[in-house]
Amino acid sequence: MSQVYDRVALIGLGLIASSIFWASKRNNVSGHIKGFARSEQTRNTARKIKLCDEVSDSLENTVTDADLIILCVPVGAMEQVMVEIAPYLKSGATITDVGSVKRAVIDAVEPHLPTGVKFVPAHPLAGTEHSGPKSGFASLFDNRWCLLTDHKSADEKAQNNVMSFWKGLGANVEFMDADHHDLVLAVTSHAPHLIAYTMVGVADDIGKVTDSEVIKYSAAGFRDFTRIAASDPTMWRDVFLSNKEATLEILGRFTEELFDLQRAIRTGNGDKLLNYFSHTRSVRRGIIEAGQDTEAPNFGRNIEPDGD
Ligand code: NAP
User: Fold this and answer.
1) 244 in any annotated domain
2) At what angle do helices 178-185 and 244-266 cross, to 10 degrees?
3) For the whole model, what pTM was predicted?
4) What's the confidence (pLDDT) of residue 293?
5) Ligand 1 mean position to 291 CA, how many Å?
6) Could you tell me whether strands 172-175 and 145-148 are parallel, antiparallel, or unpaired per DSSP bridges?
7) Is the pLDDT reported for residue 308 higher than 60?
8) 172 and 184 belong to one structural domain
């Protein structure tokens, strides 16, 4: 494909930034890519593994001639980074981000946007429990969604370019209102992560009593929880603190339903349980029929003990 941008700057060099770099090189989506990370250790690692065409030690030098600047830092660090780069952005440049929460990032970036710089907030719905410069890979975004949000500073051209960029990396792209994004993600990602963190915490408490039986006899469901609960602590702290209202709304509904099911178990209300589980099974069928997942057992993964 033809390159969408001549010069791209990646701020933060972790899982998402490194995957953007490798996918961009694989598909020739952009020209020169310069990267910056706050720690010398990450910058040195990036240089060693040839992550980025150039790794700079200065934020100013990284962004000054960039056509597209991608903020790939935790949500809570977006404002500080924006304050630091704002004086050096060239007029006509586009800022985008990859933050897992959209309203908080818009509120953090907007006050510091220089005139003539466009902002196209974005969130690729793809990730793993690993982090850091060595964790990225070119296929991370293949066939995954990237959600973009309108912003008053951006014109159609800036939005179309960011859309082409993400399509070029392999993703499917759609626009979504920022608040709606935050509610949808609270349901599909943020609340489930908190539940996984909690379940692993509970199991760990029990594990201390039963001497590691929790790990030894861990079934696939719980192993999936432990994988989710191994996700980056800083990133997830920031997600919960910055998507507070939507997450609390969903967790409130979750606990109401949980108490309801708890009562059904205590009172022996089998009909209630059966109806509830039949309904959730039909939700799963709907996901498969919509082509969003495979019907194969264990999500199509190898079910050998070491298979995942
Ligand atoms: P990561 O692998 O942990 O990398 C984070 C990068 O940000 C590192 O280079 C780190 O620098 C830098 N950083 C951390 N705190 C900073 C601060 N206070 N100031 C400046 N730089 C800082 O994280 P990631 O998984 O790529 O996540 C990056 C963003 O993508 C987050 O906003 C996250 O919400 C979003 N996201 C993540 C996923 C996922 O599954 N991981 C999926 C979609 C979107 P050092 O290495 O020098 O410490």
Assistant:
1) yes
2) 30
3) 0.92
4) 76
5) 30
6) parallel
7) no
8) no
CA–CA distance, 260 with 272 (Å, rounded to integer): 9
Residues 18 and 64 grouped into a single domain: yes
- Cβ(52) – ligand 1 distance below 6 Å: no
Does residue 230 sit within a domain?
yes
Element (H, E) at 136: none
42 Cβ closer than 6 Å to some ligand 1 atom: yes
144 Cα–ligand 1 center, Å = 19
Residue with tokens 């989506």: 29
- For residue 235, how far is its CA from the centre of ligand 1 (angstroms)? 7
Do 166 and 247 share a domain, yes or no? no
Count the residues in the chain: 308
Q: What is the DSSP letter of 90?
A: P
Query: Which pLDDT tens digit goes with each residue over 72-110?
Result: 999 999 999 999 999 999 999 999 999 999 999 999 999
What does the mean pLDDT of the chain come to?
92
The pLDDT score that the predictor gives to residue 125 is 96
Distance in angstroms (rounded) separating the CA atoms of residues 117 and 109: 11
Sheet holding 145-148, edge to edge: 122-124, 145-148, 172-175
Query: Are 106 and 232 within one domain?
Result: no
Ligand 1 mean position, distance from CA 269 (Å): 46
pLDDT in tens, 174-213: 999 999 999 999 999 999 999 999 999 988 888 766 666 7
Q: How far is CA 91 from CA 9, 83, 116, 238, in A?
A: 15, 16, 5, 30
